[in-house]
Every structure is written in structure tokens, then in C-alpha cells.
């Protein structure tokens, strides 16, 4: 099979779309994992992107070589069938609750626009269910359209802010955190690994050449790294204002017109949407294998069942659920990175 650059682009945009959720797009993840450590944090973004690249390539190579259809099959290869059965349930629960957080986040976004929480929830449910009808190709095509728009707007905001405020830092005394930054970079890479595992494990049948995997990993890492670096550099310039904003992005656009603020809020909603679509896609592929039902039906049923649970609220769900996955994410990331050097990886070669 011949190498197809366009296929690499579509895969890379799906990786970016899965990763740029509301936390990334709002600047909150960038600030908490990198910016809050001070000026030396920009270098740690490179480490995080290298880990992202390695993990994405490993998952895609396994999916391509084994022709996997869902994340449980990749876990079988990486950690063995016995452990995979346990982690299968844990990852399933993560995807369910993470999707629930995204749906609740849509409701919270609509509230910010003076709309109703329920309308935001229903809008997300309908939007995700629509993409399910088009399966993996629909998800990839959606990301090819939305991700360039999202990243372009975020980069424009950063470049425009730096153009106005000046590119050269003007801190009177450099502030460097007494804590090392690199553990936070590792944690950040692990933070997003389960959603990536869920969606990339379904792409084996879409890949025709190994080079498509390496190019897709490179494009996505460069794209994420560029946005993260510019975002972090910009937020460091307004570090004294960050505590005043729940969404750090608004510290960069505080002088923008209401129309621009609404447009940027739409970007945040799109970020929630792309991540929710990836999570429910991974869920649908896994559960359809278990229940022998069409993937769109399984995914749609899950979305509908999640609606009543959104009453717990966005902030509560994030505070309670996200810390629970820290150890799980780190373990999966570690096993993926070690796989090429393990006995299982050597047998695969």
C-alpha cells in the first residue's frame, strides 16, 4: 500500500481534537501543568509532546498491526489478557464519566451565554449522536474541519496579545518554581492518554502504510506543542491576572468586543464537542462488540442515559472524578512507552 499524506493529516487532527478539550482550549490545563511553574515551564512542553508522540505512535502501530477495533484489544497486547480485563472496566468507566463531564460542560457553557443548562446538554447530545451515524470516517472528517479553525483562533489570540503587549518578557525578577517541572509534563501526557487510547485503537483499519502513523504523530505533536507553547508564553505575561479568571483565556481577550468573546466561547464549546465525540466513539466501538448492536445505537443510548446524571454539575464532576484517574493514566502511559522494549513488543517485531 502507498503512503497517503491526507490520511496522516486526518489521523493527526483526530489526535489533536481528542486532546484539545475544554481544559486545554480554556488555558486552564496549560496554566496548571506548565505556566504555574514559572518561566522555566516552556521547556517542559517539549517533554510532554515527545511523550505524546511516542504513546500515539505505539497505540497506532499496535492497532494497525493487530487490526484492533477497540481499546481492550490494545490493552491485551500491552499488559496481557488478565490485567486487561481489569483495566477494560476502569477505562470504560473513565470514558463514561469523562463524557458526562463534557456534556455537563456544554450545559455550563450555555449558561454563560444566558441560556439554559438543559439546552446545552441537549445540544451536545444531539451533536455527538449525529457524528456517530458516520462512524470513524465521520469523526475524522469532523476533526479535519474543526481543528484547523480552533487552533487558528487560539494562535491568533496569542499572537495578537503578544503583538499588543510586546514579545519580550518584562518581569522585574524571574520567578522559577522550587519544584521541578518535568513531573508535571509527564502527568500532563498521562492526563489525556485514556481518551487517545479509546479513539486511536479503532483506527487500525484506516491505516495503509506505517509512515502514515509516524507522520500523523509528528503533525499532531507539532500542532499541540505550538499552541501549548504560545498559550503558555502568553499566559505568563498576565500571570498576575490568572487568579481573577476561571477561564485563563479570557485574561488574554479582556479588551475584545462582545462579538469576539462569543466567537471564542464557541471555540471552547467546539473543544468540548471534539473530545466528547472521541470518547463516545471509543465507548461505542467497545460496547458494540459486547452487545452486538450497531455502534450508532450503542453510542446514542449511552448519551441519552447520561443526561439525568448531568444534574450533578460541571464543577462537581471535575473536582470529584478527575483525581481518581491519575494512577490509572500514569500506569497506562508507562506500559505503552515500555511496550517496544518489552518481551511482548520484541515478539511483535
From TrEMBL:
The keyword Transmembrane belongs to this UniProt entry's keyword annotation: yes
Transmembrane segments: 43-62, 83-105, 117-136, 143-162, 182-201, 213-231, 259-284, 296-314, 320-341
Keywords for the protein's UniProt record, in alphabetical order: Membrane, Transmembrane, Transmembrane helix
InterPro entries reported for this sequence: YkvI-like
Keyword set includes Thylakoid: no
PANTHER family named among the record's database cross-references: CONSERVED MEMBRANE PROTEIN, MEMBRANE PROTEIN
Protein name, UniProt field: Membrane protein YkvI
Amino acid at each position: 500500500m502507498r503512503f497517503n499524506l491526507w490520511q496522516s493529516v486526518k489521523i493527526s487532527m483526530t489526535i489533536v481534537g481528542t486532546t484539545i478539550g475544554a481544559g486545554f482550549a480554556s488555558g486552564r490545563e496549560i496554566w496548571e501543568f506548565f505556566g504555574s511553574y514559572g518561566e522555566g515551564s516552556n521547556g517542559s512542553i517539549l517533554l510532554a509532546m515527545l511523550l505524546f508522540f511516542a504513546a500515539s505512535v505505539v497505540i497506532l502501530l499496535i492497532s494497525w498491526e493487530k487490526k484492533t477495533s477497540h481499546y481492550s484489544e490494545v490493552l491485551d497486547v500491552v499488559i496481557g489478557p488478565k490485567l486487561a480485563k481489569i483495566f477494560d472496566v476502569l477505562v470504560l468507566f473513565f470514558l463514561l464519566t469523562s463524557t458526562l463531564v463534557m456534556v455537563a460542560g456544554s450545559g455550563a457553557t450555555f449558561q454563560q451565554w444566558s441560556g439554559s443548562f438543559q439546552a446545552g446538554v441537549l445540544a451536545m447530545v444531539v451533536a455527538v449522536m449525529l457524528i456517530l451515524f458516520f462512524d470513524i470516517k465521520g469523526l475524522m472528517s469532523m476533526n479535519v474541519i474543526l481543528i484547523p479553525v480552533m487552533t487558528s483562533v487560539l494562535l491568533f489570540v496569542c499572537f495578537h496579545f503578544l503583538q499588543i503587549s510586546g514579545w519580550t518578557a518584562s518581569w522585574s525578577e524571574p520567578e522559577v518554581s522550587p519544584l521541578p517541572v518535568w513531573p508535571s509534563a509527564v502527568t500532563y501526557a498521562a492526563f489525556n492518554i485514556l481518551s487517545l487510547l479509546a479513539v486511536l485503537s479503532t483506527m487500525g483499519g484506516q491505516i495503509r502504510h506505517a509512515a502514515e502513523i509516524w507522520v500523523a504523530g509528528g503533525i499532531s505533536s507539532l500542532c499541540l506543542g505550538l499552541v501549548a507553547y504560545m498559550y503558555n508564553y502568553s499566559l505568563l505575561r498576565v500571570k498576575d491576572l490568572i487568579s481573577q479568571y476561571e477561564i485563563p483565556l479570557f485574561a488574554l481577550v479582556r479588551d475584545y468586543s462582545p462579538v469576539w468573546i462569543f466567537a471564542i466561547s464557541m471555540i471552547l464549546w467546539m473543544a468540548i464537542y471534539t473530545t466528547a465525540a472521541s470518547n463516545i466513539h471509543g465507548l461505542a466501538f467497545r460496547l458494540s462488540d459486547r452487545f452486538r448492536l450497531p455502534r450508532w445505537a450503542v453510542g446514542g443510548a449511552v448519551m441519552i442515559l447520561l443526561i439525568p446524571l448531568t444534574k450533578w454539575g460541571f464543577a462537581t464532576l471535575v473536582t470529584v472524578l478527575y483525581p481518581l484517574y491519575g494512577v490509572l493514566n500514569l500506569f497506562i502511559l508507562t506500559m505503552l512507552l515500555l511496550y517496544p522494549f518489552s518481551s511482548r513488543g520484541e515478539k511483535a517485531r
